[in-house]
């Protein structure tokens, strides 16, 4: 069974890691959001890609869910002392990734090739692909005007009220090499429990990918549990956009693509409403606070996915 997982950062990386633990490496391709990539301190930083790769490589920081374990921040401290921008937390080990990626990009290597090389160096088995080699920056439309994503997310700590999102250049962007081929070989697409607005929508907005994906069975896992986010601004975003945040809202969000939806057992009372969207449902324990839970949820999702493929 060949699986494609669509992922953002923290939530996406955890389920991707669970899937990687139970599938053969050649059966799993993880397509990662690059809408939150940006240039900072002269370096190209790809937060979601790095979170997914560090997690799969076992190098990630389990406390934060992003960045590296055993990290120090000496370089950033020095930037601060010199009066430079210190709002984005780049650790010393992490800095090496950004330096080497930026060097290669300046030599003309595409992001997908660089990511492939980094995965090999880190001993990552499954294929990890950026959604595109083209730059598609997410722009947050807010009560303070248009904000680049990291300006909103990290620098302004998600404080501005959002009114929408724009994925700059997506109309003409191409999926990264390997993305369309992986889609054509796939049996099932899994949308990880990532932020629908800013982690998954940028991937689904890629025109070529959208047309490929429509013919595949797709299962999504809710990042909202009991009306709350496990982490991040997803609930605040739904509220500011005038939508009651819930697993049901997430199912509605993906309605056009979905064959199946996995949501948490605490939301069991929403099941019949979700089923009315014409999707099959799986009510499960979707909170991943340990490697065992990541693996267990991945097993549940794949078992459910097998049922969907038979439909
Ligand atoms: P980001 O780009 O780092 O914000 O990462 P993602 O978009 O991949 O993940 C953020 C989303 O993951 C948030 O909406 C969280 O609620 C969700 N999330 C994080 N951990 C878990 C978990 O263990 N279970 C579920 N169901 N969702 C989670």
Gist of the model:
The chain has 13 helices and 14 strands. It is α/β, with parallel strands linked by helices.
Describe the 3D structure.
With 311 residues, the protein is an alpha/beta fold. The protein has a domain of 188 residues: CofD-like domains (Rossmann fold, 3-Layer(aba) Sandwich). It contains 13 helices and 14 strands. The strands form four sheets. It has a seven-stranded parallel β-sheet, sandwiched between helices. A three-stranded antiparallel β-sheet has the order 7-6-8. A hairpin with a 2-residue loop joins strand 3 and strand 4. The radius of gyration is 19 Å and the shape is globular. The model has no long low-confidence stretch (mean pLDDT 97).
How far the N terminus sits from the C terminus, by CA atoms, comes to 15 Å
CATH topology of one domain: Rossmann fold
Can you summarize the main beta sheet?
Answer: 7 strands, parallel
CATH superfamily of one domain: CofD-like domains
Ligand identities: guanosine-5'-diphosphate
Instruction: Give the name of the CATH architecture of one domain.
Output: 3-Layer(aba) Sandwich
The CATH class label of one domain is Alpha Beta
- The run of helices and strands is EHEEEHHHHEEEHEHEHHEEEHHEHEH
């Amino acid at each position: 069974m060949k699986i494609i997982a669509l992922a953002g950062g923290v939530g996406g990386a955890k389920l991707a890691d669970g899937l990687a633990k139970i599938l053969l490496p050649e059966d799993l391709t993880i397509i990662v959001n690059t809408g939150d990539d940006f240039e900072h301190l002269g370096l190209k930083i790809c937060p979601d890609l790095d979170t997914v790769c560090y997690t799969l490589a076992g190098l990630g920081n389990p406390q934060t869910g992003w960045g590296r374990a055993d990290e120090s921040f000496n370089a950033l401290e020095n930037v601060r002392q010199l009066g430079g921008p210190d709002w984005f937390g780049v650790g010393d080990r992490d800095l090496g990734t950004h330096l080497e990626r930026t060097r290669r990009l300046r030599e003309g290597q595409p992001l997908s090739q660089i990511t492939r090389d980094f995965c090999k160096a880190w001993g990552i088995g499954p294929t990890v692909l950026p959604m595109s080699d083209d730059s598609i920056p997410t722009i947050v439309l807010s009560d303070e005007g248009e904000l680049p994503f990291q300006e909103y997310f990290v620098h302004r700590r998600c404080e501005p009220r959002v009114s929408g999102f724009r994925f700059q250049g997506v109309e003409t962007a191409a999926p990264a090499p390997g993305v369309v081929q992986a889609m054509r070989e796939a049996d099932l697409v899994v949308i990880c429990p990532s932020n629908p607005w800013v982690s998954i929508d940028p991937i689904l907005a890629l025109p070529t990918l959208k047309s490929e994906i429509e013919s595949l069975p797709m299962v999504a896992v809710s990042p909202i549990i009991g009306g709350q986010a496990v982490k991040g601004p997803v609930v605040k975003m739904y509220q500011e956009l005038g939508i009651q945040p819930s697993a049901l809202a997430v199912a509605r969000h993906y309605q056009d693509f979905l064959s199946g939806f996995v949501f948490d057992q605490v939301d069991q009372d929403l099941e019949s409403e979700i089923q009315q969207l014409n999707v099959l449902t799986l009510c499960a324990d979707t909170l991943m606070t340990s490697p065992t839970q990541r693996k267990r949820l991945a097993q549940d999702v794949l078992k459910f996915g097998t049922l969907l493929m038979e439909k």
